[in-house]
Design goal:
By secondary structure, the chain is mainly α. The chain has one domain: ABC transporter involved in vitamin B12 uptake, BtuC (Orthogonal Bundle). The protein has 14 helices and no strands. GO terms for molecular function: transmembrane transporter activity. Keywords: Cell membrane, Membrane, Transmembrane, Transmembrane helix, Transport. This is Iron complex transport system permease protein. One of its GO terms (cellular component) is plasma membrane.
């Protein structure tokens, strides 16, 4: 079902299946070997059914307290970053728009770092302030990149990407300056910057859940509006749409989604450019189809990447941001070449 107006039911079903398989692999992979059947029986034993768990107490703790929250967090963060990337591409009508490239991730990183370093001076529970600070930083980064790109070259592909790189570099430099002001927090901040899913467990899931739900609900509801924007501002206005208002809503929701992801996982690049492009090739150009499918395949993608990150050099673990960079950088070059050839 390509380019149609309705939901691509087949691809949504495929996305659910991919997410389920990725989640099963995620909870199975690790030093403690757990079979799919044992995992299923243990999960059923947690429900009001007369089912006995085959896992030992230690195995059950590994599953419930370590692996399950990590898989859930991977699915949530992947869905948020991928959907935000798809929404940015739609609202800017730019195939290279991405939370990482537009300065959203760097801005969110600066905001989160400010709270990590200075939060104790303003709140007894600064951890709860991280998503809010990350959201404000993400908005700052995106709007700065958009304004700079528009002033420099009319908001075209090249100017927007270059503006995003410039803004990201500036915000990263500001973040480095803040880090140097609090040397004792450097290890914690650098670990956060490289990206990871295994730090907070269920606490991080509960922390990010309300922001994730709010961001995804708004973005999914804006699919039809993004389709109208793709026709051009003049056509959208003739259909009764206010393009400026739609852009504010979509950019704010995508920045909230990015900030929510970054606040618990650190900086994980390229998810927002790789997944939406793959999904667009599968389902067509309608954002009513792209965004819901991107949610599912984005979640599945990052769960699988996290499996690679924690098993490739086991018992050591690669930062997940390193793995996505290895996968995403060549993909970005391919997209850049394709975009350039189409513009010639």
């Amino acid at each position: 079902m390509r380019g149609g107006a309705g939901l691509p039911v087949g691809w949504i079903t495929g996305g659910l299946a991919a997410l389920a398989v990725a989640a099963l692999l995620g909870v199975s992979a690790g030093a403690a070997s757990l079979s799919a059947a044992d995992i299923a029986l243990h999960l059923l034993s947690l429900l009001p059914f007369d089912v006995r768990s085959p896992l030992t107490e230690r195995e059950a703790a590994v599953l419930v307290e370590l692996r399950l929250p990590r898989v859930v967090m991977g699915a949530v963060v992947g869905a948020l970053l991928a959907t935000a990337g798809g929404a940015y591409q739609g609202v800017f009508r730019n195939p290279l728009a991405d939370p990482y490239l537009l300065g959203a991730a760097s801005g969110a990183g600066l905001g989160a770092t400010m709270v990590i370093v200075f939060g104790q001076q303003f709140s007894d529970s600064p951890r709860a302030l991280v998503p809010v600070a990350a959201f404000l930083g993400a908005l700052l980064g995106v709007f700065a990149a958009y304004l700079l790109g528009s002033a420099a070259g009319g908001g075209g592909t090249a100017s927007l990407v270059l503006a995003g790189v410039a803004v990201s570099s500036f915000l990263s430099a500001a973040q480095t300056l803040v880090q140097q002001m609090e040397i004792d927090e450097l290890q914690r901040i650098f670990a956060w910057l490289l990206g990871g899913l295994g730090r907070g467990g269920w606490d991080d899931v509960r922390l990010v859940a309300p922001y994730a739900v709010a961001g995804l609900v708004v973005l999914l509801a804006c699919g039809y509006l993004l389709d109208m924007l793709s026709l051009g501002d003049d056509k959208a206005v003739s259909l009764g749409l206010n393009p400026a208002a739609v852009r504010v809503v979509v950019i704010s929701a995508a920045s909230l989604a990015t900030a929510a992801a970054v606040s618990v996982s650190g900086l994980i690049g390229f998810v927002g450019i790789v997944v939406p492009h793959i999904v667009r090739r599968m389902v067509g150009s309608s954002y009513r189809a792209i965004l819901p499918v991107t949610v599912l395949f984005g979640g599945a993608f990052l769960v699988v990447v996290d499996i690679v990150a924690r098993t490739l050099i086991a018992p050591a673990e690669l930062p997940i941001g390193v793995v996505t960079a290895f996968l995403g950088a060549p993909f970005f070059v391919l997209i850049l070449r394709t975009t350039r050839h189409r513009s010639i």
